[in-house]
Design brief:
The protein is of the alpha/beta class. Helix content is about 45%, strand content about 15%. A hairpin with a 2-residue loop joins strand 4 and strand 5. Helix 2 packs across helix 3. About 50% of the residues are buried.
Amino acid sequence: MINKLVEKIKQTNAPIVVGLDPMMNFIPEHITKKAFEEKGETLEGAAEAIWQFNKAIVDSTYDLIPAVKPQVAMYEQFGIPGMIAFKKTVDYCKEKGLVVIGDIKRGDIGSTSAAYAVGHLGKVTVGNKSYYGFDEDFVTVNPYLGSDGVKPFLDVCKEEKKGIFVLVKTSNPSSGEFQDQLIDGKPLYELVGEKVAAWGEECMGNDYSYVGAVVGATYPEMGKVLRNVMPKSFILVPGYGAQGGKGKDLVHFFNEDGLGAIVNSSRGIIAAYKNAQYSDKFAPENFADASRQAVLDMIDDIAGALGTK
């Protein structure tokens, strides 16, 4: 799957991923009104609104981008109906040819970690048959429990030719409370990066590993260090746009081949119509068109920073 992601990035010339992290206050009133008329102000109504919102954004952007990243918590909060909307979103994005990164941040040990890996990337056995569960192409993994928590994901990745992005240096302000702590003179995030590189050697695609890393755009100097530590790992870069990251902050996340990183924007794209930059041009009824313009602007910003315009 890493080979497909690289190829899609080359085809679109857009090393970006749209975060499908819908919140009810992001969804225009005409979408929620129709969903509530059909299914009531219920969990089912909320899930229907989320699904219709996602579908419209995907329809407006799928030809511009290589990948999407649905954040599972935004769906889980609506219970079973929300998870049905999550699955519908995953399947629809794959039908559109997009690579799907499930932002699940799972991390446990033993059979629990194996169950997470099977449920999101692999197949579960039922009697004499096996079935895919959510069937994403990549998922995010929390390495805090060590190799015991990551190995079950690696096993499924090898079997299914899928991938993971391991949390290394996250974009949130308090990430340094643990991730920046020095151990034998090195920050913890660098040690995790070294493990990512080692795990990746077991799961190589053509040029890059199935094992990538999450490194926030809000820490460009750390990204520069980690790029050198993990030369064969793709870096998933959150924190662009709404969290303050800009195209100029991203240069060192990429390798000399212009590849090696994919930058995420969530609310900066899916809620673009609420942003002052777009609200004058796009009414709420045209929210998906605003999302498309936000994608185009992001592509232009990153290309300008990388010198690939």
